[in-house]
Design goal:
Distance between the termini: 27 Å
Low-confidence stretches: none
Bound molecules: cytidine-5'-triphosphate
Helix content: 25-40%
Strand order of the largest sheet: 12-11-8-13-16-17-18-19
CATH architecture of the largest domain: 3-Layer(aba) Sandwich
Strand content: 15-25%
Largest sheet: 8 strands, mixed
Structural class: alpha/beta
CATH class of the largest domain: Alpha Beta
């Protein structure tokens, strides 16, 4: 039975958390409740205690709350943290790592997936500070259940109303299902640009930030996969909980991928590998002359392309950065490189930022358009496709094995 910690914060919609709790129980979820002290002014902890059949954690300093350090024991035991309703205050604390109440302390102490259903006045919700904090949480993989529009408690008509109970429960159950759905897989991800040296001070490279690959690596890790992230030079910190291999040139990246390919069951090539490198790296700094200079370039190895023939049961996922005929060109790359999935994006939208729009092109079936979402959300969509592809590969095997 999965265990969900339901965080309730100080908002008039706190009473709806009772319904969320009951609904989750109908799906056989064991719910433990954590309340901020503001929340206890709206609904008494006893209500949640009686509904959940567990003590409610709302006072870090209460006698008994520290015999097992409650915020740590709950953080460890939780399969998921759901906050409904979430005020602007708790969203801000989560985003900035402030831990000064039972719920924000628990959030910083848990590695469980987190779902947040904000509820607040329209202007508060639209405030750049709140939107920035929500964007930070999204990029970290927190699932935000968007508030609806309607009459708010403050008398306003607008966005900010807690999402419907059914929607919150559905998002929670979906996040629970995603939790370990890549366990058993070893996902090898390439990310970032490669840097091709010309001499000790000059190089040829591109503007890839590496974010897309890093988000794929983090999403796969959070969903239970072993992850090897082979990264060209980026400004991003190496994510925790995975094997990180730092490389510089296309040649080094190719070597690292070959080395780890044997243990991989899935390869996601998100790196923007240089297609050309200078024919030779000058050991001394090149001196300028008066006339023009020609830089002779040679092709690098197609890292992903070289894996197709030896892929076996592995799934290969590539990216296609295009400016025109997105889907057709992606399909051509897919068959040339023997891929199972290709993520096509219009480079005008993608490079650099935290969000991305893409078209997921599968071998069979219609391409799926993913509108502009955070790169982490797109990463999770890619992981969803991997899970589905794996299930499809497993189906004929099961059929071959016959009924048991
Ligand atoms: N790729 C790779 N090794 C290379 C080049 C690309 O592994 N040397 C991978 C990328 O990580 C990406 C996919 O292949 O997943 C992109 O394919 P590619 O045909 O190289 O795309 P573009 O560079 O956009 O190609 P083109 O210039 O032909 O449009």
């Amino acid at each position: 039975m999965p265990m969900v910690v339901l965080g309730v914060t100080g908002c008039i919609a706190a009473y709806k958390a009772c319904e969320v709790l009951r609904e989750l129980q109908r799906f056989e979820v064991d719910v433990h409740v954590v309340m901020t002290s503001a929340a206890t002014r709206f609904v008494g902890p006893m209500t949640f205690e009686a509904l959940s059949r567990h003590p409610v954690f709302h006072d870090q300093w209460a006698l008994g709350a520290n015999s097992d350090i409650r915020h740590i024991s709950l953080a460890e035991a939780a399969d998921l943290l759901l906050v409904a309703p979430a005020t602007a205050n708790i969203v801000g604390k989560f985003a900035r790592g402030i831990a000064d109440d039972p719920l924000s302390t628990l959030y910083t102490a848990t590695v469980a997936p987190t779902v947040i259903a904000p509820a607040m006045n329209t202007n508060m919700f639209d405030h750049p500070a709140v939107q920035e904090n929500l964007a930070t949480l999204r990029s970290r993989g927190v699932r935000i259940v968007e508030p609806g529009s309607g009459y708010l408690a403050c008398g306003w008509l607008g966005r900010g109303r807690l999402a419907e109970v059914g929607e919150i429960v559905e998002a929670t159950m979906a996040a629970l299902a995603r939790r370990r759905d890549l366990s058993g897989e070893t996902v090898l991800v390439t990310a970032g640009p490669t840097v091709e040296d010309i001499d000790p001070v000059r190089f040829v490279s591109n503007r890839s930030s590496g974010r897309m690959g890093y988000r794929v690596a983090e999403a796969a890790r959070d969903r239970g996969a072993q992850v090897i992230l082979v990264s060209g030079p980026t400004e991003l910190p190496a994510p925790s909980g995975l094997e990180y291999v730092s490389v510089r040139s296309a040649e080094e990246m190719a070597r690292a991928v070959q080395e780890h390919f044997d243990h991989a069951t899935v390869v996601v090539a998100a790196a923007a590998v240089a297609d050309y490198r200078p024919v030779a790296v000058s050991a001394a700094k090149l001196k300028k002359g008066d006339g023009p200079r020609t830089l002779e370039l040679v092709r690098t190895e197609d890292i992903l392309g070289s894996l197709g023939d030896k892929k076996g049961e592995r799934l290969l996922v590539g990216f296609a950065a295009e400016t025109e005929n997105l889907v057709d060109r992606a399909r051509a790359k897919m068959s040339a490189k023997k891929l199972d999935l290709i993520v096509a994006n219009d480079v005008a939208d993608g490079f650099g930022g935290e969000s991305n729009a893409a078209v997921l092109v599968r071998r069979a079936g219609a391409p799926v358009e993913v509108p502009l979402v955070s790169k982490r959300e797109l990463a999770d969509r890619i992981c969803d496709e991997i899970v589905e592809l794996r299930a499809r590969v497993a189906e004929p095997e099961k059929a071959k094995a016959g009924p048991r």
